[in-house]
């Protein structure tokens, strides 16, 4: 069997696999039309969470740019945020303090992080919406349009994610936000370490506790927490 025949067989297998995966992709993306808007609304309508989300991003940006950390991720809550990665708690705390100072001094770009899940959520939502349009329009859903759609989303998702972060899921106005401390926490059940406990020595989970004296601002009016 020559190399050309092998390549043809590989191409056929990949093509069949692609055809099998199309329905799965369609169903998963259409499901995002319901799930993602709800998640975005929950974040966008929660002033505490948006401010902590901004500080989480600022902390990750400082850790990456100033300390050269890689492979980091974070999760925001109303009372603070969690950082996962191979980095000491002292460095995380220092980065959080620098990030908070930066946001308070007007460095609002720190509130946007390229690795945020918002970018992926925005891309999935965009794919779901466009797929729905193609299905409703009829006759436009084919392999070519799916490839074009996929390429578009790969190129556009970073920009879409930045817009979502800047205007919906973060709030860099953190004048009344303070950092209360940091402590190590157990990894979430979804982290998968229950099957590979040895990996815990390479990655830590730390929670940065914050406190807000007010929830949000409207003009010159301040709403107490």
Describe this structure in words.
By secondary structure, this protein is α+β, with helices and mostly antiparallel strands. The radius of gyration is 21 Å and the shape is elongated. The strands form 2 sheets. A 4-stranded antiparallel sheet has the order 1-2-4-3, with helices on one face. The chain has one domain (26-188, 195-224). The relative contact order is 0.15. Residues 192-201 and 218-225 have low confidence and may be disordered. The longest helix has 42 residues, at 3-44. Helix 2 (47-65) packs across helix 3 (89-104) and helix 4 (117-137) packs across helix 5 (143-169). It has helices at residues 3-44, 47-65, 89-104, 117-137, 143-169; strands at residues 73-77, 80-85, 177-184, 204-212, 214-218, 221-224. A hairpin with a 2-residue loop joins strand 1 (73-77) and strand 2 (80-85).
Question: Can you give keywords for this protein?
Answer:
single chain, 225 residues, alpha+beta, four-stranded antiparallel β-sheet, two-stranded antiparallel sheet, 6 strands, 56% helix, elongated, disordered C terminus
Distance between the termini: 73 Å
SSE string, helices as H and strands as E? HHEEHHHEEEE
Spatially, the strands of the biggest sheet line up as: 1-2-4-3
Query: What's the tally of helices?
Result: 5
Q: Would you report the number of β strands?
A: 6
Low-confidence stretches: 192-201, 218-225
Helix content: 55-70%
Radius of gyration: 21 Å
Quaternary structure state of the chains depicted: single chain
Largest sheet: 4 strands, antiparallel
Coarse shape: elongated
> What is the domain total for the residues?
1
What does the average pLDDT come to? Answer: 79
Strand content: 15-25%
Which structural class should the secondary elements be placed in?
alpha+beta
């Amino acid at each position: 069997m020559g190399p050309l025949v092998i390549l043809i067989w590989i191409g056929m297998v990949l093509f069949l696999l692609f055809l099998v995966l199309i329905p799965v992709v369609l169903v998963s993306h259409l499901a995002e039309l319901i799930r993602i808007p709800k998640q975005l609304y929950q974040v966008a309508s929660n002033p505490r969470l948006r401010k902590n989300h901004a500080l989480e991003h600022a902390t990750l940006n400082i850790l990456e740019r100033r300390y050269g950390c890689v492979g980091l991720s974070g999760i925001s809550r109303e009372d603070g945020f969690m950082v996962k990665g191979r980095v000491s708690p002292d460095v995380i705390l220092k980065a959080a303090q620098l990030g908070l100072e930066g946001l308070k001094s007007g460095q609002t770009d720190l509130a946007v992080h390229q690795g945020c899940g918002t970018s992926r959520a925005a891309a999935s939502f965009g794919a779901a919406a466009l797929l729905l349009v193609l299905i409703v329009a009829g006759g436009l859903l084919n392999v070519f349009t799916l490839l074009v759609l996929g390429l578009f989303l790969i190129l556009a998702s970073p920009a879409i994610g930045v817009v979502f972060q800047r205007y919906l899921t973060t709030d860099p106005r953190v004048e009344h936000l303070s950092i209360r401390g940091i402590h190590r926490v157990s990894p979430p059940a979804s982290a998968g370490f229950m099957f590979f406990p040895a990996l815990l020595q390479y990655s830590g989970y730390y929670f940065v506790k914050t406190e807000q004296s007010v929830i949000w601002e409207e003009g010159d009016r301040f709403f107490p927490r």
